[in-house]
Amino acid sequence: MVKKQEELQDILVTSKVLENLFGVKDRTIRYLADQGIVKRNSHGKYLLFESAKSYILTLKAANAGKNVKTDDEKEDLDLESERAAHEHVKRQITEIKLQLIQGQVHKAEDVEAVMTDMFTKFRSKMEAIPTKLARRLEGKSRVEIQKLLKQEVRNALTELSTYNPSDFYSDEHISVDSSALSALGVEDEKDGG
Questions:
Q1: Tens digits of per-residue pLDDT, 90-109?
Q2: CB atoms within 10 A of CB 8
Q3: Nearest-angstrom CA–CA distance, 100 and 170
Q4: Dihedrals phi, psi of 171, to nearest 5 degrees
Q5: Topology of the domain comprising 2-64
Q6: Which residues of 147-178 are buried (b: 16+ CB within 10 A; e: fewer)?
Q7: Is the pLDDT of residue 192 over 60?
Q8: pLDDT digits (tens, 9 = 90+) for 153-182
Q9: What mean pLDDT value characterizes the chain?
Q10: Higher pLDDT, residue 170 or 190
Q11: Burial tier of 51 (Cβ tally within 10 Å: 0-12, 13-18, 19+)
Q12: Mind listing the pLDDT tens digit for each residue in 3-18?
């Protein structure tokens, strides 16, 4: 089988043979040769096996909506797409770092520390209510007891609901004036950017 394939690769034909085989005109064969799809030797004859194989691959690719690429072109394309993906990731990292510096995003460990502290304080306040109010509630009416309890719970919840962005700032945070940002061509998110 290998010997027959080698013999097929050596068969040279005229343009007329390829025209009949592919069902195209002479002008199309010349165009395909210029594009490197059909293979021509130095004497103007065409390599039948290589030309037919390449023409079939081109038709398959055209039907699939793709261009036929050589292995070198595929490596170049993969390298280009890898570089583009790498640059995209680098850009995202830079944008996140800028947002971190500006205090627009927070590190997970900073958020965890602040939230743990907030909830620990809240829990302590809630657990302290009975002790704090026990004497004050003695002898009070049901309405007065409810009013005092609601007030203490509301105070604890109000403290829990207060958001202070600076509590979440990381060590990398830098306060930057909005005029300095605009001078650098960066929109300040707080100004509607």
A1: 888 888 777 777 677 777 78
A2: 14
A3: 7
A4: -65, -25
A5: Arc Repressor Mutant, subunit A (1.10.10)
A6: ebeeebeeebeeeeeeeeeeebbeeebeeeee
A7: no
A8: 998 888 777 777 777 666 665 666 666 556
A9: 78
A10: 170
A11: buried
A12: 566 667 778 888 888 8
Integer CA distances (angstroms), 114 to 45, 111, 163, in order: 79, 5, 11
User: Three-class SS string for the chain?
Assistant: CHHHHHHHHCCEECHHHHHHHHCCCHHHHHHHHHCCCCCECCCCCEEHHHHHHHHHHHHHHHHHCCCCCCHHHHHHHHHHHHHHHHHHHHHHHHHHHHHHHHCCCCCHHHHHHHHHHHHHHHHHHHHHHHHHHHHHHCCCCHHHHHHHHHHHHHHHHHHHHCCCHHHHCCCCCCCCCHHHHHHCCCCCHHHCC
> Is the pTM value of this prediction over 0.70?
no
Q: Are 47 and 33 in contact (CB under 8 A)?
A: no
Contact (Cβ atoms closer than 8 angstroms) between residue 58 and residue 26:
no
Q: Residue 193's pLDDT is what?
A: 43
| The two three-digit tokens of residue 71, written as one number | 């292995």
Token pair for residue 23?
A: 């069902």
List CB contacts of 111: < 8 A, sequence separation 6 or more: 168
Residue bearing tokens 């509607």: 192
